[in-house]
Specification:
Order of helices and strands: HHHH
Distance between the termini: 106 Å
Oligomer: single chain
Helix content: 40-55%
Largest sheet: none
Number of helices: 4
Low-confidence stretches: none
Strand content: under 5%
Radius of gyration: 38 Å
Number of strands: 0
Mean pLDDT: 79
Structural class: mainly alpha
């Protein structure tokens, strides 16, 4: 029997290729504005085209972006450095906050180390009248 080289495309690799193309097609359906699956359905009349935004969205959202989308550099702002007095005030305020938090933590630690309080013993109320019998249906 003469030597035969293996076929370039055997059934297994063909199946994998078809599976990979199907997976890519499904993933392409989730890709924002570039959606070839949706475009094919819309072109054939099966799918629904793009809808306009509802009226309340159009009215409440301006065309101006109030956030910086990913990938864009924010505009430069003119920020003046803080003076030495302002930095000292901020540092003092942060120290006061840290000291207050430390005092609260100390107080909490002390409370957890105290022994449990004695249980309160309540004497039962005296019986004022005999218990009435419940009404029975006749």
């Amino acid at each position: 029997m003469p030597f035969m080289p293996p076929p370039v495309f055997d059934r297994m690799s063909l199946g994998r290729g078809i599976l990979a193309l199907a997976a890519l097609g499904m993933l392409a359906g989730c890709a924002g504005d570039l959606n070839p699956v949706r475009d094919v359905f819309v072109a054939t009349g099966v799918g629904e085209g793009r809808r306009d935004a509802p009226q309340f969205i159009e009215e409440t959202r301006s065309g101006e972006l109030r956030y910086v989308p990913i990938g864009l550099v924010p505009p430069e702002r003119a920020t003046d450095p803080k003076t030495q007095e302002e930095r000292d005030e901020m540092e003092d305020e942060l120290r006061r906050i840290a000291d207050r938090n430390e005092q609260r933590a100390l107080q909490t630690r002390r409370m957890t180390l105290l022994p449990d309080p004695e249980p309160v013993i309540v004497t039962p109320a005296p019986d004022l009248s005999p218990t009435p019998e419940p009404a029975r249906p006749q």
